[in-house]
Amino acid sequence: MNLLDLARAAGPLLWVLLLLSIYVVYLTVMRVLALNRLGQDAGTLIERARAVTAESGAGAALAEVDRAAHPSPAAGVLRAGLGRADRGSEAAQAAMNAAVLDGDARAYAGLSALGTAAQIAPLLGLLGTVIGMVRSFLVFSSTSAPTPAQLATGISEALINTAGGLIVAIIAYVARNALRAKADRVMAQAERVREELPAWLSGRPAAPVAARPAPMPEVALTFEPVKV
Fold it and tell me: How far apart, in whole angstroms, are the C-alpha atoms of residue 190 and residue 172?
């Protein structure tokens, strides 16, 4: 039995699963391409903007960021904060918050659709399973002594749809988690800029990460018997 025979034996729901699998693969490829573009490392641009801000001010740093035309969300947060620096720290912070939200929308786009596909695919497979089993029981109701070939039609439809739904769900689930991890890395750099830029504008050094306190030395306790 070839693939075409399997598709015919599985009934119409398998074609729905095939269309869903094509959509999942297409969306995954498009999101990988988009995240590769958004995930370009902006570390050099961030350090350059920091130096220019300290030397020449926010206006010169903004011009430097605009010339770079970097597509990452971190660069967008830089543009937003430096562009509103002349209006005060609160305006700059509000602009950066809006830029982070815009970056989130671009980085995490499509992930909810993949999650929905991962949830729907097993349900479609289960529906195909139920339909196949119903057909098998209908054979019993119409024939007192059904042949194995008659029963195999409904059973094969049930099993093929179950397998198809699980395969599509696994692909969608794995793709969603991998893309979310990549989007998290992209947005971590944007969050770093939002936290550090106010310190650049005020001329203060960024707050260092607090070191963990050293553990207290262990003191050995000895007890001597009391003489009466």
Answer: 27
